[in-house]
Amino acid sequence: MLRQERDSKGYTQRDVADALDWSPSKLIRIEKGTVGISVTDLKALLLHYDITERERVDQLVDMVKAGKKPAWWHQYRDVYPQQFINFIGLESSAIRIRQFQGLIVPGTLQTPEYAAAIMRAYGSQESRIERGVEVRMRRREELLRSGGPELSYIIDESALLRQVGDSEVMVGQVRQLMELSAYKQMHIQVMPFSAGPSSAMVGSFIVLELSEEQDDYAMMLETPDGAVLVDEPNEQTARYSKFFTELRDKALSEDDTQVFLDELLGRLGEDG
């Protein structure tokens, strides 16, 4: 309804965000239903849209109060810190997701067996491992749904050569990467050792493009002290988006990546 009201006024999301001193991503997440809206923010929007009839306002306020059901990811707050829960919310509303991973296969591309082996190596308790695997699988399921975001991944060759679990786990993981590449919205590329160094190789990161507005990004950075979420667009998020473009240009093409994975699958089968 809020999106329809905005369209009827001829406002862009940027127009409304600027008028209310919000970020465009906030309005986008509200309109997509990814996050709830407070009564205060609702009344601000309604006033901006010239909706002041008492009965209509009260009806919409009642809808907000009745619609406080938490999103699916909130049930995993016992497994992950609030920062990562917030990241999943942003991820679910993104229109494009770009990830460079230099250490392991990206979480949303992992098989259950690979994911469990990774978490076990990190010292996670078995009870948390089961739920952590659930989160990874649910994230992938949601991202691959009809109308989901465009997904682009660059995986360093070292991440694919690093043994995680036994050979059967590795074979299953490489095979899954090949299968996922068949999805139209999925783009997987390998950064080969032969590509050499690049100034864009600044560590593993995920850039979320939240709208068609210029430089409307959020991102997650992996650091030695843990992941860092940047949930509002700034110069840093724009810079990392350019880093991804530079890395994509140096990586194997999607077709050559399939050849690489097929050859790697053969080698893993021989080792097994």
TrEMBL record:
Report the SMART domains cross-referenced here: HTH_XRE
Gene3D superfamilies (alphabetical): lambda repressor-like DNA-binding domains
Record-linked CDD domains? HTH_XRE
Q: Name one Pfam family in it.
A: DUF5753
Q: Which SUPFAM superfamilies match?
A: lambda repressor-like DNA-binding domains (SSF47413)
Question: Which segments constitute the HTH cro/C1-type domain?
Answer: 2-56
Name recorded for this polypeptide: Transcriptional regulator with XRE-family HTH domain
Q: State the organism of origin.
A: Amycolatopsis magusensis
Q: Write the lineage as a comma-separated list.
A: Bacteria, Bacillati, Actinomycetota, Actinomycetes, Pseudonocardiales
